[in-house]
Design a protein that fits this description.
Structural class: alpha/beta
Strand order of the largest sheet: 7-6-5-8-9-10
Order of helices and strands: HEEEEHEHEEEHEHEHHH
Number of domains: 1
Low-confidence stretches: none
CATH architecture: 3-Layer(aba) Sandwich
Radius of gyration: 18 Å
CATH topology: Rossmann fold
Largest sheet: 6 strands, mixed
CATH class: Alpha Beta
Number of strands: 10
Shape: globular
């Protein structure tokens, strides 16, 4: 079993990732989705948390050397802090928008100009929040080593966005591996495989079609 498969199997086991092709979830954006991922759940399972942190440490080596870790608020903060602690590196985190009081910080923690920073996120969907954090760090004269995340939906649009931003991306597991594990373990039926594939290829179109069918 490779590491991506092991991570996917564990996330399914603790229901950090839930699949429901027949009764889709509704994302904050309003999109319907046959999958819901909340990697904050794994923080409550020490053995799986250790597995993921070890994976983050190992995968972080692909980015070469860097000076600090930046977590993307909010879900990327605990995973980034755990990685920074393991690597004995400085840690900061990036808010989605500046704090409304006090110093009105967008970046919390001490970020020194010119530092090379590895950005940590829990989940990559469109890549918007991660790349927003990347731009905020670049605006403070940081050099970006790349983005490291636990899981990606593998949306083509996200892959294009990271390429255009000149930002390397690595993840511990991914949607393709997850669906393979889910089918092998009878978590979902083989008949649902086409649904899961169609959604990943065009989530907005799939969501619109699903909602139209229910009208």
């Amino acid at each position: 079993m490779n590491f991506a498969t092991e991570v996917a199997r564990n996330l399914l086991q603790i229901k950090a990732i839930k699949l429901s092709p027949q009764k889709p979830f509704t994302w904050a954006s309003g999109l319907k989705s046959p999958i819901y991922c909340d990697n904050r759940t794994l923080l409550s399972y020490p053995a799986i948390r250790d597995l993921v942190v070890a994976g983050l440490v190992e995968t972080s080596r692909k980015f070469g050397s860097f000076d600090a870790i930046a977590g993307v608020a909010t879900a990327g903060i605990p995973h980034g802090a755990l990685l920074a602690d393991r690597l004995k590196l400085p840690f900061v985190y990036v808010r989605a928008k500046p704090k409304e009081h006090g110093r009105q910080n967008l970046i919390e923690g001490e970020l020194k100009p010119g530092q090379k920073v590895l950005v940590v996120e829990d989940l990559i969907s469109t890549g918007g929040s991660s790349l927003q954090a990347v731009e905020a760090l670049r605006a403070e004269n940081a050099t970006i080593a790349g983005v490291l995340a636990i899981f990606t939906y593998e949306f083509p649009a996200a892959q294009e966005a990271f390429a255009q931003a000149g930002c390397p991306l690595e993840t511990l597991s991914n949607y393709s591996t997850l669906t393979e594990v889910a089918i092998e373990s009878n978590y979902v039926s083989a008949a649902d495989q086409a649904t899961l594939r169609q959604w990943r290829e065009n989530p907005r179109l799939w969501s619109a079609q699903w909602q139209n069918e229910k009208i």
